[in-house]
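Hi R.,

Here's the chain you asked about this morning:
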Amino acid sequence: MAPRMLAIYGKGGMGKSFFTSNLTSRLTFDGNRVLQLGCDPKHDSCNTVFGGHSLPTLGEQWRIFKEQGREDQLSIADVIFRSELKPGAVLYGCELGGPEVGRGCGGQGISSGFKTLEGLGLSKWNLDYVVMDFLGDVVCGGFATPLARSLAEQVIIVVGHDRQSLYAANNIAKAAAYFREMGGTTSVLGLIVNRDDGSDTADKYANAVGLPILARIPLSRRVRELADACRLALEDDQFNAIFGDLAKRIAGNEIPPCHDYNALEYHEFLRVFGAEEPDGRPDSASSDELFSGTASAKKGIPMLSLTPSVIPQVVTTDPVQLKVKQVMESIGLYVTDLSRTDRDGVTVTSGAVEIRIGNIDDIDNKAAFLSALRRSGQTFSYVDLREMDAPSYR
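And the predicted structure, written out as tokens:
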């Protein structure tokens, strides 16, 4: 039986990793087999549950193996680690990581990491839960992967009582609803109010959007100090009770998924805070104002082209992959990842869309099919063109 997949989303700095680590630990203490999967290039999700260890990331390990020409030999033991929280209670951890700082797309690293884990048999592992700790950027296709490809069964959004975290939550809820309308199966369970200071801003938002608040985690100096020392909040009786109750409700399927909520438009969102968007548009700045009347004002403003040929996401010297990349870009598909194996041939990733090309003997016909599919206006996240007699997509 495949593990139950939960995704934890929320604005950066809201305590997603704190929440995820205590939830996975409580589930583990309750007798479940759990994998905590860090899905953020910062790769710090699992630090607390591993006693302060920073885990080697899947991205780092894959690059090491690739540099040695043996990426096909990457194994579970190289990327999945175990932490015995107490005798008989083992929690598993993995950090997907991402490219080196300033050298690539973080979302692309997440997409590639999921593909690698799937290749290692993730769906067949003897686990009860995989809990994914994501940052709140669902504009990037890579970070929206669990929603776009329905990898996550259910989503929990961590918020505070501030406008910024609730704005991120609204975007996440909007993305989840969009992908569900497109045929996805991921559901939102509700909100977690972290560092609850007793105010009611999150409650006002929850009422307006139609999402339940699943738990309130109080603001606590003692628990913050525990977290800073890479120790679990479960050491505190009050917090252990909060996480214990939530874990029990999740395990017992006592929290119904929300399908009838309505993410707010911007003007509706502002009204939650008693604000209104002004009419019209802001005053425009002028060239003279910015250049202060100097000769520079007469010069044309250099424009940075964002075409793939100028800023490539993928650099390859493999002539087969290079040809596929050029053909994909010629039909307007921006290639964010490329891989090639003897078994599957070439696989292209474009944002959250995975395209199995296979061999390239018939690449022109495959490109024509993709171009027609894009022009049709249909939404898809997976296309299989390995057998052109029977192409498929979903």
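Residues 323 and 360 are 9 Å apart (CA to CA).

Let me know if you need anything else.
M.
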